[in-house]
Amino acid sequence: MPIRHTVWKVGSQPQRLIESALASESLLEEMIVAAPELLSGDWMLIGRQEDTGFRGRIDLLAMEPDGSLVLIELKRGRTPREVVAQALDYASWVQDLDAAAVAAIYGRFKPGRSLADDFRERFGTVLDEETLNQSHRIVVVASALDDATERIVKYLSNRDLAINVLFFQVFAHGGEQLISRAWLIDPARAQTNVNVSVAGEKEPWNGEFYCSMGEGRSRSWQDAAELGFISAGGGAWYSKTLQQLSPGDRVWVNVPRKGYVGVGRVTGLVQPASTFTVHTAKGEAPVLQAVKHGTYHRELIDDPERCEYFVPMKWLHTVPVEHAVNEVGLFGNQNTVCKPTAAKWRTTVERLKAVFTGFERE
Fold first, then answer.
1. Residues 249, 313: Cα–Cα separation, whole Å
2. pLDDT tens digits for range 92-135
3. What is the tens place of the pLDDT at every residue in 154-205?
4. pTM for the full model?
5. Using CA atoms, how far apart are residues 223 and 293, in angstroms rounded to an integer?
6. CA 7 → CA 19, 141, 176, 178, distances in Å?
7. What is d(CA 184, CA 155) in angstroms, rounded to the nearest whole number?
8. Same CATH fold, 209-361 and 8-192?
């Protein structure tokens, strides 16, 4: 059933706001360009009205923290089915964009600016040309969706195509207008559908989870290894993929630009910093009291979108960061947790099993 909102003004006599409409569909695009967080606080806009050569232009193009691209199509008076079909057609163009082409798109969107510099400023990490556009997703923006189109989108998503719909509704409030949004599919689930694979190298997932855990001011691998956890925070894009993990799952942990530092089994479900505890020599303690390094976004503890989230682990074999396994050809990705379908992931795990031998004692 298509998603619809009802908004009420709070008071002793609640008043239902009347649904309204924007003066033009182009106004929504202008609003998104001015405030990209209308779509997602985890994306960086890199292109607008880009000519695909397929007799059409992509409305908006964005980039995620791992270099994946997001193709964004606004309804613009077309039927939802037409928008979905057009987006699928444009996706075949997006998948072939190389680093130079993406940089050129950004140059037209932000003349005189550097994509690499702005990416580093936005996400706090270096843009890796090797992993740039390894995957992409499609987002259709609409005020309404018919039943048939909803079935089509869900069908494609259930078969691991990364596609989602973002609904916007407008309400009148006095002389002002308010706008609300809702996703058709949980963004965390949609994110996991962005297959981490290279064209021609996709194969069935081998059952082994990959984890990218940052090391620095925000968090520390030493804390994680000593207290038994993995964590992520600072935005939903980073933390929500932790929801994929269940007790018993085996996870191989990589510290970006350092290498692989451990393998372990998940022992519980993801929890926010406000409730997560760890075992110490003095007994159970709140994680933010027990950690010795890193901030773990303490200042965001009451923000459910951006606070740090933790998953408890039983480590099978760990090494310090200075002894991380970092060899040419090993798999790497900036998603906090993923189920890679690249052939490189299978060969990476085979290599890591020769180095991290703790799993053999399970």
1. 10
2. 899 889 999 999 999 999 999 999 999 989 887 888 877 788 78
3. 888 877 788 888 888 899 988 899 998 888 887 766 666 554 444 446 788 9
4. 0.75
5. 7
6. 9, 20, 14, 10
7. 12
8. no
Q: Dig out the tokens for 39 from the structure.
A: 């779509």
CATH node for 8-192: 3.40.1350.10
- Backbone φ and ψ for 112, nearest 5 degrees, come out as 85, -5
Whether domain 209-361 has CATH 3.30.70: the reply is no
Domain map (residue ranges) of the chain: 8-192, 209-361
**Which of 362 and 79 is assigned the larger pLDDT?**
79
The angle, 0 to 180 degrees and rounded to 10, between the axes of the packed helices 80-94 and 147-158 is 30
Judged against a pLDDT cut of 50, whether residue 252 lies above it is answered with yes
